[in-house]
Structure formats: C-alpha cells, structure tokens
C-alpha cells in the first residue's frame, strides 16, 4: 500500500499539468497528470503536498484545498491512496521537472489529453465543485478502468 498526494494548481482558467515522459517503468508513462508524489516517513498529506509541489515545480503553495481521497488499484499488487488537492495561490519561479514536461493547459482542453479514465471522473468532480469525496478506481494491467465508486456507490460507466 502506498500513500501519495496529487495536486491540480490553478491559474487563469488553467491547470498546471505534468506530461509523464521521463521515468522508465512508470505506470503513468505518457499520461498527463497533476503534480505530487509519495509520502516520506512521518509526513502528513499537507507536508507531502508542499514538498512534492516544490520539488516538481519550484512553486511554494500559499493556498490549497483538500478535495478528496482516491483509492487507486492497479492489477493485483498496486494499491495507492492519493490525497487529492487543488491550489489557487503560489509563489516562486517554475523549474524544469525531472519527471516530464510541465504545461499550463486550459481547463476546457484537459479532457483532450491522454488521461487515465478515472482522472476524467475526478477532474469532472473538481470542475463541479463537488464536496469532499472518496473515489475508488480499479484498473486492470492494460490500463483499463474496470470499476469506479464514488462515496461507496458504484458509478455507471459509459463504454
């Protein structure tokens, strides 16, 4: 079981997206995601959030909101609990990210990117200002979303 944070930083109707192109054996290879990463020993979700955003972007968050918890299941062996955040104020200068390319993307164009199907679900919840939520996403090892549940209730999925 892993613990991680994922943050969508907002500015001028855009999200800062990370195109994961660098790491070998990356479950997120070629996908577009927010920024974040895994907890270090004894970190709180907020400490992990602030450290990971600083490491990956150079930005220091000044205002953020805890939006939900995402249970990410991949195949038989990977289970990750992601604390999902949005942030709307930050300072500092953007730095190159060693995990891929950072790019500000208009929120209306986010769904056109190569995203995980489950990310489309929670990005829609964020856009709708949904209250704090728990989202479970189960994938097979071919990256196919096979089950999704919001706040304990299975979601109907369009195929």
Order of helices and strands: EEEEHEEEHEEE
Distance between the amino and carboxyl termini: 29 Å
What class, by secondary structure content?
alpha+beta
Task: Indicate the multimeric state.
Answer: single chain
Q: Given the C-alpha coordinates, what overall shape results?
A: globular
Helix content: 10-25%
Could you name the CATH topology?
A: Nucleoside Triphosphate Pyrophosphohydrolase
Beta-strand percentage range: over 45%
What is the arithmetic mean of pLDDT? 94
- The total count of strands amounts to 10
| Most strands sheet | 10 strands, mixed
Radius of gyration: 15 Å
Question: What is the number of independent domains?
Answer: 1
**The CATH homologous superfamily:** Nucleoside Triphosphate Pyrophosphohydrolase
List low-pLDDT spans: none
Task: Work out the helix count.
Answer: 2
**Corresponding CATH architecture:** Alpha-Beta Complex
Q: CATH class, anyone?
A: Alpha Beta
